Amino acid sequence: MSVPAAPQAGGEARDPGLQPERTALAWRRTLLALMVLDVLVVRAWFLALGRAGEGSSAHAVGLGVCVAAAAVSTAVLALCAHARSRELHHGTTAPPASVLRWATAGAVMLAGATIAVVIIER
């Protein structure tokens, strides 16, 4: 068995193997987990809307804002995952910094919305 040679400085491409497919699948799994989190946030909002008749409409409005933030951040992450998956099918280059910045912003926004839901629900 021989070990593949390191890429040459002349631009010789390396054999990526299954790495791009594994990375694309990891992005999809992460997106699926975030969608489940969105469903839980929406569920908390619907429960708050059901209790809104008891005088806690501000509570429901706060959760509505969290739902909107979670939906926007998940959409941003879905677009980042789609862009990265498309890039991985064409090669194994590093993702552009803009994709990483948007993905990070989406993840932070979703985490903030989730923390806000937990605080509001206390």
From TrEMBL:
Membrane is among the record's keywords: yes
Membrane topology: Multi-pass membrane protein
Subcellular location(s) per record: Endomembrane system
Matches recorded under InterPro entries: DUF202
Record-linked Pfam families: DUF202
Domain of life: Bacteria
Transmembrane segments: 30-48, 60-79, 99-120
Primary localization: membrane
Record-annotated DUF202 domain positions: 15-79
Entry keywords, A to Z: Membrane, Transmembrane, Transmembrane helix
Coiled coil: none
Protein name (record): DUF202 domain-containing protein
